[in-house]
Each structure stands twice: as C-alpha cells, then as structure tokens.
Amino acid sequence: MKRIEFETIEEVRTHLKSNADCTSAVFQGLDLKSLGEPLGKANLTNALFLGCSIPAELFGVIEEQGGTIFPKLTGLPFNPYRNSLYTPEELLGDYEMGGSSTYKDTLDGRVYQHFMDGGGQNPSDVAEALARRLHDLAISDALYEKIEGRRVVAIMGGHSLERTHPFYQETARLSRELTHKGYLLASGGGPGAMEATHLGAWFAPRPESELDDAIAMLSQAPLYTDEEKWLDTALTVVEKYPVLESNRCESIGIPTWLYGHEPPTCFALSIAKYFANSVREDGLLAIAKSGIVFAPGSAGTIQEIFQDAAQNHYKTFDVSSPMIMFGEDFWTREKPVYPLLKQLADEHDYGALISISDSREEIIKSLDDFSF
User: Fold this and answer.
1) SS3 of 119, please?
2) Angle value at C-alpha 363, between 335 and 309, nearest 5 degrees
3) CA distances from 271 to 104, 219, 249, 278 (A)
4) Is the pTM of this model over 0.90?
5) E strand or H helix at 251, and its extent?
6) How far apart are the first and last CA of the chain?
7) For 187, 233, 339, 363, which has the most beta carbons within 10 A of its beta carbon?
8) For residue 372, what pLDDT is reported?
C-alpha cells in the first residue's frame, strides 16, 4: 500500500477537512502543535512521524494506534527530515557580495565544516552517521518527487573546466537548447561543466546573446579556487538576469559535501545535496533515463562513464539510455575512452546508444530520437 506523505501543514489541514483516515501516513518535518485536536480524532494507525513537533496530548494516541515517532535530532546545522530540495538562496543566502561574510559563513559552508569536524566521509559517531543517512533518504525522496513525469538529461563533466574554455560555452548552449525543448537538465551541481549546464538552463527563456554576456561576466573568475570572486561574478549575473519563468528554466544540481570545498552553482533552481557521494553519483546517473552527455572531464567523469555503462549493460533501472561523448578529439585522443567503451558494448543492445560528436545539433537529435 502506498503511503500518504504530508510535507506541509497545508496538506495536512486540507486532508483532515474531508478525510480523517491517516492510516500509514507519513508526516515529515512538520510542526503539528496547532493540529492536536483534529489529529487526535483521526485514524493514525501505523502512521509515521519524522522529526515533527507533536503536541503532548497526541503522544498517547499515536502509541495506542501503533504509530512510530522518529524524534528530532539536535545539535545539527542541517535538518535530517527535510521535506524538499535545497535552493541556492537557502544554501548561499548568508553570503553578501562585498560584505564581511564569506562562503564559510553560508549554510552550505557551515554544513561542510560540520561534515569535516564529524569525521568527513567516515563519521565516528553513530548519531551523526544516522542523521546523515536520514538526510540523504529525505533528499532522494524529494528528488524523485521533483522529476516525476519529466524527461531528465544529465550533463557530466569536469569541475576544473574554466569559464573561459570553449567547451564551457558549448556546454551552456547545449543545455540552453535542451531546456528550451522541455528536457530537465541535471548535473553534479558544482563548478566547471556542471555550472555551465545550469547556466544554460537558466538562460533557456532568454536570447543567446544574453547567455554570451553572462559568460563574459563569469570569465572574470575562471576557476572556483577563489571562492568569493567565483561567487561574486555568479551572483552579479543572477542580479542582472533574474529568473524569468521558473518552469522554463529549471534544472537540478546534485552535489555532495564530500567535495564541499567546491561551492554549489547559483544557477540550479533546485539542489539535491548529499553527504554520501556514492548515493549521489549512482542516483544522478539513474535518474537520467533520457540520456547522458559526457563533456570533457578527468577521473570523476571517466568513472561516471563506466558506471553508466554498467547500468545500461545490466539495465539496472529497467532501461538503457543514450551515452553521448561531447568532444571527439578529447574522448578519442586526449582521454581515449570512447574506443574502449564501444568495444565493451559490442554485441550488446546499448552499444547502439553510444555516440560521439562535436555538434550540438547531432547531440540533440540523438536525444530526441530516443523515446522514454
């Protein structure tokens, strides 16, 4: 039986007005103190309360009806039971251009410091480990709700691709055109080719000349190593070219605090940030069922190529999807992955879905020709 999930107080109120049956319902990260009376009269059999504020009179009712309460976890800079994806404003909102605050003062920076202080990717405290797993589960739940019914295409590529590099511009233009055609673009949500992906989506409702102007502005800080300057130039672009229509320029960044020294992009309207990089990488590849474009990158991108090939080979998620290498010279000479990939896929169905091109038009056609 599919559980009803309540992620806002408004959803709970609306449901209770017409239906007192909350059997097996999930209440996620909500302050329920104002709803003690109607919930006390509801059927809460096997209901699940995740990090909610619960009125005292309701505890006995929940226990009698077999409900389960996951209590709030204290002393954390993040909410393990959050019921939505992050936004750039939430993660970076404490940063002010030209002000006294730095990237480290943002929520994103504080959570990263907490992550490092707690043992990095190997937390020594069981409560910390549990909080992270609960958080990542909540993020995955919100992510799958966000992409339901959408044609998701991911663009993978290196974090060190400079904003001045021709492939940065080409990646942004490709993403802009794909978003304009109705695809939902996703990436690892960081700098380099990832930022270019979300920048292109951001400018989908705008003319290409404005995208070119934005890239020129961003080029004043080519790399993220100067965090403040990198952020300042991005926020300047956001100020000059604010979101026109969110439903026409939405994209999803999927970064990780494992690489928390890299600030998340300002141009992804939704951010699914994880603690566990393995969950993040596998999940990013899994949701891109309409295809993945691999822009130039290094070890991380190459790992993702073969990880995606394995998913296609075994149809891990019930479908094989296009794998398109963006940059013929790079993927056949500089990093000759393409010939090996084709050889591995020889005599397998997904081999026909592997291609390589320098042409945005050819890449878009390959994605359009694949129907999922």
Assistant:
1) coil
2) 50
3) 18, 24, 14, 17
4) yes
5) strand 251-253
6) 27
7) 187
8) 65
